[in-house]
């Protein structure tokens, strides 16, 4: 019989023996939730363009871009999209069977596919860090 | 529709989002880098020089429509999956699923309207019609 998910939302944060991949899963959920909330708002905010340049400037330029707190929020959203996208690409490849390795006999010390595709997770981390560095420079105009 | 098909569409939408949202993010958030490459068209948020030309462009209109549909599907189906994993009554899960479907349809309808209205009848003509 399947075990019930009694941990509920707390289960997202409990990595147990699953290690870094489980934390990547938690981050994927948090970034996903923040992006979908943003998307629903984004559709209405950017929709103001159909009312003309004056409305656009009042809603987007003065209301959002001119607000330093929201500018940092926009950067956090950019980071969320970056992390969700790169990690999502990793999950897609793993879902399709890549980086799982060939089946092996279950001999002690046990090795799981999680051990075998952990390197790919770290490579994705490096890609995220590199793109984030460029994004930081662009957002805060260091470059 | 079978859950496996919905899940496959979720993954497919995710793959397409990487391409289209990546394109969108580069235009909106890497303008300094694009400038170094000689590809920048100026301030991406300036209404007259950037927003209006994007509204009139068939390529941008198409990309926005694709982004809207696959973004809403991927995001709301993902949220539904999270709710379905929780230990709550089956009826509550179904109700949440229907609610998210209605949210998706409502936001999607408004999004499609603004994208198409902006493309087919860009301001100031549209402003006169809507009285904005």
Task: Summarize it.
The complex is a heterodimer of chains A (143) and B (132). Chain A is mostly helical and 143 residues long. Chain A has helices at residues 10-13, 20-46, 53-65, 68-95, 113-116, 118-139.
Pattern of helices and strands of chain B: HHHHHH
What is the SS-derived class of chain B? mainly alpha
- Specify the number of helices of chain B: 6
**Approximate shape of chain A:** elongated
Q: Would you report the number of β strands of chain B?
A: 0
Amino-to-carboxy terminus distance of chain B: 42 Å
Computed over alpha carbons, the radius of gyration of chain B is 18 Å
Radius of gyration of chain A: 20 Å
Helix content of chain B: over 70%
Strand count, sense and barrel status of the largest sheet of chain A are: none
Specify the CATH homologous superfamily of chain B. Fumarate reductase/succinate dehydrogenase, transmembrane subunit
Task: Name the quaternary structure.
Answer: heterodimer
Percent range for β-strand residues of chain A: under 5%
The CATH C-level class name of chain B? Mainly Alpha
Number of domains of chain B: 1
Let me know the number of strands of chain A.
Answer: 0
Could you characterize what this model shows?
The complex is a heterodimer of chains A (143) and B (132). Chain A has helices at residues 10-13, 20-46, 53-65, 68-95, 113-116, 118-139. Chain A has 143 residues and is mainly alpha-helical. In chain A, helix 2 crosses helix 4 (68-95) and helix 4 (68-95) packs antiparallel against helix 6 (118-139). The longest helix of chain A is centred in the middle third of the chain and has 28 residues, at 68-95. Chain B has 132 residues and is mostly helical. Chain B has one domain (3-130): Fumarate reductase/succinate dehydrogenase, transmembrane subunit (3 helical TM bundles of succinate and fumarate reductases, Up-down Bundle), CATH 1.20.1300. Chain B has six helices and no strands. The model of chain B has no long low-confidence stretch (mean pLDDT 88). The chains are: A mainly alpha (143), B mainly alpha (132). The interface between A and B is large, with 43 and 43 residues.
